[in-house]
Amino acid sequence: MKSELLRKDLESKSIIKVCGAFDAMSAKLVEYHGFDAIWAGSFAISATHAVPDASILTMTEFFDAASNMAETCKIPIIADCDTGYGGPSNVSHLVKKYENAGIAAICIEDKTFPKQNSLLENGQNDLISEKDFVAKIIAAKEAKQDQNFMVIARIEALISGAGMDEALKRATAYENAGADAILIHSKKKTPDEVFEFADSWKGNSPVVVIPTTYDTVTLDDLISHKIKMVIHANQTLRAAHASMSRILKQMINSDSLSKVKEEISSMEEIFELQEMYNIKDKEKELEKELKKLGYIN
Amino acid sequence: MKSELLRKDLESKSIIKVCGAFDAMSAKLVEYHGFDAIWAGSFAISATHAVPDASILTMTEFFDAASNMAETCKIPIIADCDTGYGGPSNVSHLVKKYENAGIAAICIEDKTFPKQNSLLENGQNDLISEKDFVAKIIAAKEAKQDQNFMVIARIEALISGAGMDEALKRATAYENAGADAILIHSKKKTPDEVFEFADSWKGNSPVVVIPTTYDTVTLDDLISHKIKMVIHANQTLRAAHASMSRILKQMINSDSLSKVKEEISSMEEIFELQEMYNIKDKEKELEKELKKLGYIN
Amino acid sequence: MKSELLRKDLESKSIIKVCGAFDAMSAKLVEYHGFDAIWAGSFAISATHAVPDASILTMTEFFDAASNMAETCKIPIIADCDTGYGGPSNVSHLVKKYENAGIAAICIEDKTFPKQNSLLENGQNDLISEKDFVAKIIAAKEAKQDQNFMVIARIEALISGAGMDEALKRATAYENAGADAILIHSKKKTPDEVFEFADSWKGNSPVVVIPTTYDTVTLDDLISHKIKMVIHANQTLRAAHASMSRILKQMINSDSLSKVKEEISSMEEIFELQEMYNIKDKEKELEKELKKLGYIN
Amino acid sequence: MKSELLRKDLESKSIIKVCGAFDAMSAKLVEYHGFDAIWAGSFAISATHAVPDASILTMTEFFDAASNMAETCKIPIIADCDTGYGGPSNVSHLVKKYENAGIAAICIEDKTFPKQNSLLENGQNDLISEKDFVAKIIAAKEAKQDQNFMVIARIEALISGAGMDEALKRATAYENAGADAILIHSKKKTPDEVFEFADSWKGNSPVVVIPTTYDTVTLDDLISHKIKMVIHANQTLRAAHASMSRILKQMINSDSLSKVKEEISSMEEIFELQEMYNIKDKEKELEKELKKLGYIN
Question: Cα D272 to the chain's mean position, in Å?
Answer without folding.
Answer: 24
